[in-house]
């Protein structure tokens, strides 16, 4: 477990997963073991969304890749590369064609191993500042590699009627619940404010969109995404890819409001 501290803020990170963000003693992050989701945050890469209806196959310019929901990156372990009192850097390196064990097999998937036909290096770093927590993502690899990226943090809910504010519009928790597992799309949006017992704003760079998901009333996932996967049929998921230009960087800032 890595702990970052600055002024009245404290962050806990477990093997690359953000498991706690406390400001003035208030916990913003959904706690593992609480109802709703068994994680606190994760990444969706190199695809976002399910592929079961497409036989767990995704088209790429090189070949057909075997993938499961939200990609195979989450099935890999982070390596801690660098740490200070207020920052930490984790990496995952992947060699093209390497089989990655799928934890969804066999209960929720027919695919025991997932593969991707490109090398890549995925870096996730945290920086605690006086204004909030910055989460940076850096992807390097073969020029032209197709990919999507989504960040999947879960926020703890304290009140009966929290509100999500996006593009000047309010979204009630019931609206997110009504969409179910597909997740509520918030298109063309770079900043969302979550109003609960305390307020926190999720600001982004390069993602461009969000989706919101929960199936319980004690947590909600507010997820920056590069592409909303339900905009296409599962066998056309490749239409949502962007191409790597040697390096691509993305940023999320979790900014508590005074």
Automatic annotation (TrEMBL):
Keywords: Calcium. Its cofactor is Ca(2+). Monomer. This is Aldose 1-epimerase. It comes from Flagellimonas okinawensis.
């Amino acid at each position: 477990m890595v702990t970052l501290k600055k002024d009245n803020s404290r962050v806990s990170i477990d093997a690359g997963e953000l498991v706690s963000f406390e400001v003035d003693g208030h916990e913003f992050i959904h706690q593992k073991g609480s109802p709703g989701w068994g994680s606190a945050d994760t990444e969706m890469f190199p695809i976002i969304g399910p592929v079961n209806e497409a036989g767990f196959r995704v088209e790429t310019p090189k070949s057909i890749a075997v993938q499961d929901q939200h990609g195979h990156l989450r099935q890999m372990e982070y390596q801690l590369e660098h740490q200070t009192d207020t920052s930490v850097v984790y990496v995952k390196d992947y060699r093209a064609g390497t089989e990655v064990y799928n934890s969804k097999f066999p209960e929720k998937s027919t695919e025991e191993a997932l593969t991707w036909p490109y090398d890549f290096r995925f870096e996730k770093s945290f920086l605690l500042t006086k204004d909030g927590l910055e989460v940076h993502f850096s992807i390097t690899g073969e020029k032209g590699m197709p990919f999507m990226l989504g960040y999947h943090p879960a926020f703890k809910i304290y009140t009966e009627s929290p509100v999500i504010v996006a593009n000047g519009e309010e979204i009630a928790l019931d609206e997110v619940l009504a969409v179910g597992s597909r997740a509520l799309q918030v298109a063309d949006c770079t900043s969302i404010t979550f109003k609960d017992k305390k307020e926190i704003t999720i600001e982004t760079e390069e993602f461009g969109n969000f989706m919101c998901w929960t199936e319980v009333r004690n947590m909600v996932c507010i997820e920056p995404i590069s592409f909303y996967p339900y905009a296409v049929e599962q066998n056309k998921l490749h239409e949502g890819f962007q191409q790597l230009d040697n390096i691509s960087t993305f940023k999320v800032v979790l900014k508590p409001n005074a």
